[in-house]
Design brief:
Layout (H helix, E strand, L loop, with lengths): L4 H11 L3 H10 L4 H19 L6 E9 L3 E9 L2 H4 L2 H17 L4 H6 L1 E2 L2 E5 H12 L3 E10 L6
Antiparallel strand pairs: 1-2, 2-5, 3-4
Helix pairs in contact: 1-2, 2-3, 3-7, 5-7
Amino acid sequence: MKISIDDLKKLRQDSSAGVADCRAALEDAGGNYEKAKKLLVERGLEKAAKKEGKETSQGIIESYVHQDRVGVLVELRCETDFVARTDEFKHLAHELALQVASMNPKDVAALLAEEYIRDTSMKIADLVKLTIAKVGENISVARFARIALGDLND
């Protein structure tokens, strides 16, 4: 089957998956773009499941302050410093900080179980898994802290 180069480019841009993965998904989907996109997500989640349990000793601390009233620090970990410097990883850290600022979860487990504020059809755990699939390494939310002006949680 002949795969459209335009579809291949668009799928790569939309999914951040590798060219070979995009081509395989399009071929398996018979050239159907939407079906190929779903296949990439499914395959990415399978890859993410295989990464679970790998040690995450590198990462970043993301900070976010909302209107000088709420401050958040999130420690997000990955396997290598190379991945910690990628835009995808940094974007995830920022999205997690926004989530913590707006929803005030009590702990990491509660954060991962929450609906994602930008897309309520997915949980935060799903967002993390999608990023794992994109970067090819295990990712874990180590901890976070949220401070709001006037909170007295001593």
